[in-house]
Design brief:
alpha/beta, 37% helix, 13 strands, Nucleotidyltransferase, domain 5
Length: 325
């Protein structure tokens, strides 16, 4: 451990992950619990999301009492005051004053930002986008998160809502997104979307090997089943992966044409499969980006900090915004 330490938390639909992080980006200690369901602070239930956050911070402070700040990365639209206005995949977040509530409960300076923003902050400082002044970090998970680094700073926008990249429209007649609009990139290129595409293929009579492996029910097919079959060389699974890669690449192309990043780092579970997904994504990206033969094409690389990118970025952001006097 070097120098100062702070707590970072990553709040999502399935977990609350907390970690003590030093100012060199190293994780010193961590604690995780499942994300409770229900409204923010619920009805006073100890199972509420607020209580889980406070309990995680309290546990980590007890083990590492020298922490001075708390940073929180959370899914959804986070304003510049640390309130979360909306998160399609976390129902508890609806016009929720997360920063103010947590800071009042724990008595430490607290910063709240979008989870993809803090992951991008971490990757820009310590990971795949290190030393890059302009970069993007895209997380392909249950939804799609994104962080855009411009001139060495994470883009926040006028209200803090910038880089909701999963929610730009690719196809106005496309599948319904969790936010209630059709054809958003998230509905077509998230990890969830891969499962939807796979089940549709199974119902068309494709993916016979995969369907057999899951017990014969096309509705039991999910994204990881496609990955497993793809790694084994199954041609029909590879065809689904290629079609999915087109959807990912089209969104990346649109963002790259707008922001001109030096590198695009891809995070999320798909990164664990390496070139199985990244190879087709790169192929289709180069095939669609404007002026591919006349420009430096941004490199598409796996993010390197894994699931801890969010806690690292949140902790470092809080320490940077609240330096020791």
């Amino acid at each position: 451990m070097t120098g100062r330490v702070g707590i970072g938390l990553d709040i999502g639909g399935t977990k609350v992950l907390g970690a003590v992080v030093d100012d060199a980006g190293a994780v010193v200690d961590e604690h995780r619990v499942p994300s409770p369901t229900g409204e923010w602070r619920g009805s006073g239930s100890s199972q509420g999301l607020f209580d889980a956050i406070v309990a995680t911070v309290t546990e980590l402070r007890a083990r590492q009492p020298e922490v001075t700040t708390v940073g929180i990365g959370a899914a959804g639209m986070v304003d510049l005051d640390g309130a979360i206005h909306y998160a399609p995949n976390v129902p508890a977040f609806r016009s929720t004053p997360v920063r103010a509530d947590v800071e009042a409960a724990i008595g430490l300076p607290t910063v709240v930002d979008n989870d993809a923003n803090v992951a991008a902050y971490a990757e820009a400082r310590f990971g795949a986008a290190r030393d890059m002044s302009d970069a993007m970090v895209i997380t392909l998970g249950t939804g799609i998160g994104g962080g855009v680094v411009i001139g060495g700073k994470v883009l926040r926008g006028a209200h803090g809502f910038a880089a909701e990249v999963g929610h730009f429209q690719i196809d106005p007649h496309g599948p319904m997104c969790a936010c209630g609009e059709r054809g958003h990139w998230e509905a077509m290129a998230s990890g969830t979307a891969l499962g939807v595409m796979a089940r549709a293929a199974a119902h068309r009579g494709e993916l016979a090997t995969v369907v057999t492996a899951v017990g014969g029910d096309p509705d039991a097919v999910h994204g990881p089943d496609i990955s497993t079959a793809g790694r084994a060389g199954d041609a029909e699974a590879l065809a689904v992966i290629d079609a999915y890669a087109v959807n990912v690449a089209i969104g990346l192309v649109g963002l790259a044409n707008i922001f001109d990043p030096g590198v695009i780092a891809i995070a999320g579970g798909l990164v664990n499969d390496g070139e199985l997904f990244l190879g087709p994504i790169r192929k289709h990206f180069i095939g669609h980006i404007e002026g591919a033969t006349y420009r430096p094409v941004p490199e598409i690389v796996p993010a390197t900090l894994g699931e801890r990118a969010g806690v690292i970025g949140a902790a470092i952001l809080a320490m940077d915004q609240h330096p020791v006097a």
